[in-house]
Amino acid sequence: SLPELDLELLRDPADDALCSRVLDAVQAALCRAPLGPRRCARRRRPPPLLRQARAELQRLARSEPCGMRGALLDLCVEHGKACHGVGRIAADPAVVPTFQLTLVLRLDSRLWPKIQGLFGSGPAFAPLRLSTGFRVIKKKLYSSEQLLVEEC
Q1: Can you tell me the distance from the alpha carbon of 65 to that of 63, in angstroms, rounded to the nearest whole number?
Q2: What is the pTM for the complete model shown?
Q3: Residue by residue, what is the 3-state secondary structure of 22-51?
């Protein structure tokens, strides 16, 4: 395994653009989540969240044979002990995925009492706020290696 510093030298500039498209798809998936389309404008993401997620996704993709092009991303939103799947994004649909990333975003816990009904059928009036904390789970699809879980 190469040291982390050497992996930076292998960085593919095309991965930057691809990662931006993946994160755009993440934002779109959050807007299409079971909360209804009119809630999209009311979802609030802390500014550093996507920047930190981008850096982590790119770091995990660097050691892969196809880089970010080989990523299959599952997006989940966690609240309490429940985790809701929001979408699945193939970074490059023309490439057979070589690894799977599960990006688990967390709701801002300070709002939990106000948003308990958010994922149900009842009305919810509080805006959805995501925490800056998230978790990324990496699973290699071509290897029997164990899962890698990164907490950020």
Answers
A1: 7
A2: 0.74
A3: HHHHHHHHHHHCCCCHHHHHHCECCHHHHH
pLDDT band at 141 (very low <50, low <70, confident <90, very high): confident
Supply the CATH number for residue 10's domain.
3.90.470.40
Identify the CA nearest to 33 among candidates 102, 119, 114, 103. 119
What type of residue sits at position 110?
A: R
Asked if 58 and 10 count as a contact pair (C-beta separation under 8 A), the reply is: no
What would the pLDDT profile of 78-122 be if each residue is shown by its tens digit? 877 888 898 999 999 999 999 999 999 988 766 454 545 555 544
Please give the residue range of the domain that contains residue 107.
2-111+123-151
Any idea which residue has 């009119």 for tokens? 38
Q: Does any domain span residue 72?
A: yes
- Is 102 contained in some domain? yes
Q: Within 13 A of 60's CA, how many CA atoms are on the CB side?
A: 29
Q: Is residue 117 part of a domain?
A: no
